[in-house]
Amino acid sequence: MNASPQKHDVFQAIADPTRRSLLKLLVDQEMPVTVISGHYPMSRTAVSKHLRVLAEAGLVKERKVGRETRYRLDPEPLQELKRWLSYYERYWENKLSALQRFVEDDDSNPGIREQSP
User: Fold this and answer.
1) In three state form, how does the secondary structure of 38-96 look?
2) CATH 3.40.50.2000 fits 10-73, yes or no
3) Do strands 31-32 and 60-65 pair parallel, antiparallel, or not at all (unpaired)?
């Protein structure tokens, strides 16, 4: 196999709120780290470290333009996250439906309430 293993997976990469914010920033356009770092109250080195984690997870792609490195979102690895979440979505829907039925039943019978002893 020629592909090198990823150091970070998608779940680790998006666990940090700064990295999630970076992904949002890169949704519509490619940007150099100097421009990206202007959006955050941290050093360019710190932003670069976050971008490195995202790149290792395959969520951002780097492209050299002269002496500048530009970053852009690669949403493909997010499909893994989407598949994982969609599996558990059915549990959320079941719980929300059960809660809705409970609330509606409770609202339709306001006189029937359990009294604690």
Assistant:
1) CCCCCCHHHHHHHHHHHHHCCCEEEEEECCEEEEEECCCCHHHHHHHHHHHHHHHHHHH
2) no
3) unpaired
- One-letter amino acid for residue 4 of the chain: S
Q: Which of 28, 65, 31, 66 is nearest to 51 (CA)?
A: 31
Kindly report, residue by residue over 58-87, the tens digit of the pLDDT: 999 999 999 999 999 999 999 988 888 888
- Token output for 113: 């309430």
What is the rounded average pLDDT of the residues 21-38?
A: 96
Distance CA 103, CA 49 (A): 47
